[in-house]
Amino acid sequence: MPRGAKPTATDRRAKIAEARRAEILRLRRRRIAVVSGASVAVAAVVAGVIVIAQNHDSGGSKAASAAQGAAQAVPDTSPDTSGIAGLNRFTVSKRNHVTTSVAYGQVPPVGGDHDPVWQNCNGQVYTKALRNENAVHAMEHGSVWVTYTAAAPEADVKALAAKVSQTPYTLMSPYPGQPGAIMLTAWGKQLTVDSASDPRVDKFFAAFVQGPQTPEPGAVCTGGKDKA
User: Fold this and answer.
1) Same-domain status, 61 and 80
2) What residues make up the domain containing 53?
3) Are 48 and 81 found together in one domain?
4) Is residue 167 a part of any domain in this protein?
5) Mind listing the pLDDT tens digit for each residue in 85-124?
6) I want to staple 73 with a disulfide (CB 3.0 to 4.6 A). Which of 43, 92, 169, 211 is the partner?
7) 105 vs 44, higher pLDDT
8) Which spans are transmembrane here (predicted)?
9) Per-residue pLDDT for 47 more than 80?
10) Which CATH number does the domain housing residue 139 bear?
């Protein structure tokens, strides 16, 4: 429109239409921004809920596993009449047959639910780590389980292996990660010794090989699992 000329009705209508288009475009952009922001916020909330749920489930699983392990055996606080210094005693409350892994509260386990198949324990010396659930079943039959780590002197390992191989209702295997270099375990009983020549080894064998703690006295130690 030339300078100085008066705007016509058509010009005014065009300006109004242009202003409306600009306002509509501005409102549309604002709505898009609001919706996008809300979507991001909702996504963040959903993600947070998922993470919380996952953490809750994970924590619940860990708590359930710990509770299961604690429920298998608890410390026995009654007077100790064994005469074996350093003996740890436990009351074992469960001994069901299960086909799944069991979370035990002790390392190595001192008893509890276990596999239906026992580890052969007729003086067997294994050179590989055993499955806990099979070894626990062997202890239910009255066996003593001798375990050791790489920290145990080779001479001690050989001496213990010789003793085990000559003693029915015993078995022996490495057990990486156990707290002591050499440990003896029977159902509800556990002892850490300094060496194979520790006099408490003989005392432990005498007291607990088919001892009074045995849940199934006379049950066989052959015919079960014969490999690690």
Assistant:
1) no
2) 6-72
3) no
4) yes
5) 999 999 999 999 999 999 999 999 999 999 999 999 999 9
6) 92
7) 105
8) 32-53
9) no
10) 3.40.30
